[in-house]
Amino acid sequence: EAAGIGYVHASPGTGSLDFVLDNSKIGNFTYTNDRGYYAAYPGTRIIGVAKKDSLKYLTSGTATLKGGSFYSAFVVDTLKSTKILLVEDDLKAPETDKAKVRFINLSPGSGKLDLAVEGNATALFTAKAFKEYSTFSSVNPSDSYTFQVKEAGSATVKASLPAVKIEKGKIYTIWAKGLSSTTDSTKFGLAVMTNK
Description:
- The chain is mainly β and 196 residues long.
- The protein folds into two domains: 3-89, Immunoglobulin-like; 99-194, Immunoglobulin-like, CATH 2.60.40.
- Helices cover 0% and strands 54% of the residues.
- It contains no helices and 16 strands.
- Strands 4-1-7-8 form a four-stranded mixed beta sheet, with no helix packed on it. A four-stranded antiparallel beta sheet has the order 3-2-5-6, with no helix packed on it. A four-stranded mixed beta sheet has the order 12-9-15-16, with no helix packed on it.
- The model has no long low-confidence stretch (mean pLDDT 95).
């Protein structure tokens, strides 16, 4: 049984990247893009990224993939220190009439972050440092959530992601992206991807 591996470009300022699995180019991605899961043989695989149309790795490493399991490979940090964060994805169906959401802090140089829903006093996830992630948690579906990211324990909203549709039966990852020090397309914010 194959494993599934998805790639997510979360490295601000790095430009377009080729994702590489066992020295074969899988596809090309730009910042904040993600792709669905690719089938991969179970066992120890080499995963890496290279600048577009270059076969020179920016970073690579080995990953042990289990058959029937799913993984997300996030390319993180800035160009000088690009890394891959491999996370196993729990794609078991949500509870009846629910969705599942998790939070990952992929903003280099950020402090610990909380993720909240506008209008809710209690944060969904708390105190995630850079490259830390939560497990998936059940949430009620909604046609229009506004997700907010705050410094851990603070009421001050650092960034918002409005009008996010969360559908029942689906599974999502929300991630903090970008750099607090910039105001261009690499600025600090939130992104959402659908795992299933």
